[in-house]
UniProtKB/TrEMBL annotation:
Family under the similarity heading: Belongs to the DegT/DnrJ/EryC1 family.
Record GO biological process: polysaccharide biosynthetic process
Superkingdom, natural source: Bacteria
One Pfam family matching this protein: DegT_DnrJ_EryC1
Modified residues (N6-(pyridoxal phosphate)lysine): K190
Keyword list, A-Z: Pyridoxal phosphate
Organism: Fervidobacterium gondwanense DSM 13020
Name assigned to this protein: dTDP-4-amino-4,6-dideoxygalactose transaminase
Record: active site: K190 (proton acceptor)
UniProt xrefs under Gene3D superfamilies: Aspartate Aminotransferase, domain 1, Type I PLP-dependent aspartate aminotransferase-like (Major domain)
Database matches in CDD domains: AHBA_syn
One annotated GO molecular function: transaminase activity
Length: 376
């Protein structure tokens, strides 16, 4: 059995350290916010080179709170991609805003920034939520241009891309830290994952940080005195302590993910397989951290045939994402229809996620590629 993702292999290596840190939090007794959360926030901010990191309950809440902190309110238009996880768009609706979708680039699967510019002008949009999909950084130069030219707010959805980097004005920055505000998810399968739900908001803006901090705690700075109507969305202290342990290994794990992508690429090239895969690029910075390894087939039939054959051979796969967001029933009121975003619609039918996690072995990669080769 080769699973799509396996948390237990990692746990076997970290067991002692994780149990020790859990014991220290429980012995300390401060399990809501307190030192474990503060430590992790400080370490995360240092790792990302950003002024503020605020731990929250999950990545979806991080998006809702970040948009709220930015001041998005009823009727405000926010541009985003339909080829992403649901929470990227639901946060807009949950703040009373209106999602404006534009298609993705067929090469990177990230939001097409030319179309974003057009949408900002046409819809007078207040904000943009780019997603660094599957771990690949959105083009910072173009984003910077939009930020300056139109004054739109940028909320980076970096849920899948911790540690990935981009470049603007010759400065390399980590994803999540480039926009006005950014968010991360520490869902267990993420490159940095907790043992349950967890997330964070990051920003260099003191006012946004203060608002986000209040919003995660019922809109209050001082207990029982509420300046805003906020949420109960704190990062659990136990998860924070475990994330501190794991953060130390993140770069090592990321390197292994990049090497796994290289190994897939080597074997695909050797076997001359008719599929499209994310090429490892030498840019001098980490433009992709391979949160997911997603390949693309010629058509839906081939994709489904490969999926079925791999399942039969005990190899895990997944579809990210089978129905683009503009076609979701709950967004019907916005009037989108099939054919509006051909690239996203095609990718939802032709792509397949293959196993990737740092403990995946080269032998397992060889087996996966062999099985794909057999079926196509
Ligand atoms: C792109 C993207 N945005 C937001 C989220 C939401 O994060 P969470 O699952 O922690 O709520 C996820 C996680 O699945 C995601 O992949």
């Amino acid at each position: 059995m080769i699973p799509l993702f396996d948390l237990t292999r990692q746990y076997n290596k970290l067991r002692e350290e994780v149990l020790r840190t859990v014991d220290s939090v429980l012995s300390d007794g401060r399990v809501i916010l307190g030192p474990a959360v503060e430590n992790f926030e400080k370490e995360l901010a240092e790792y990302l080179d950003v002024k503020h990191a605020i731990g929250v309950a999950n990545g979806s809440d991080a998006l809702v709170i970040a948009l709220h902190a930015l001041g998005i309110e009823k009727g405000d238009k926010v541009v985003t991609t339909p080829y992403t996880f649901f929470a990227t768009a639901s946060c807009i609706v949950r703040n009373g805003g209106v999602p404006v979708f534009v298609d993705v680039d067929p090469e990177t699967y990230n939001i097409d920034l030319e179309q974003v510019e057009h949408a900002i002008r046409k819809e007078n949009a207040k904000a943009v939520i780019p997603v660094h999909l599957f771990g690949r950084t959105v083009d910072f130069e173009k984003l910077h241009f939009l930020k300056v030219k139109y004054g739109v707010k940028i909320l980076e959805d970096a849920a899948q891309s911790i540690g990935s980097e981009g470049k603007t004005d010759n400065i390399i920055k980590k994803s999540g830290t480039f926009g006005n505000i950014g968010i991360f998810s520490f869902f267990p399968t993420k490159n940095l994952g907790a043992y349950g739900d967890a997330g964070a908001i990051v920003t260099n803006d003191d006012t946004l940080a203060e608002r986000a901090k209040m919003l995660r705690q019922h809109g209050s700075k001082k207990k029982y005195f509420h300046e805003m109507v906020g949420y109960n969305s704190r990062l659990d202290s136990l998860h924070a302590a475990i994330l501190s342990v794991k953060l130390k290994y993140l770069d090592e794990w990321t390197e292994r993910r990049i090497n796994i992508a290289k190994e897939y690429q080597r074997l695909f090239e050797e076997k001359r397989l008719p599929l499209k895969y994310p090429k490892v690029e030498e840019k001098g910075y980490r433009s992709h951290v391979y949160h997911q390894y997603v390949v693309e087939f010629e058509d839906e039939q081939t994709r489904d045939r490969v999926k079925e054959y791999l399942t039969k051979n005990d190899i895990g796969t997944a579809l990210y994402y089978p129905l683009p967001l503009h076609l979701q029933k709950c967004f019907a009121e916005y009037g989108y229809k099939e054919g509006d975003f051909p690239v996203s619609e095609r990718l939802s039918k032709t792509t397949l996620a293959l196993p990737i996690f740092p403990e995946l072995t080269d032998e397992e990669i060889a087996t996966i590629v062999e099985k794909i080769s057999e079926v196509i």
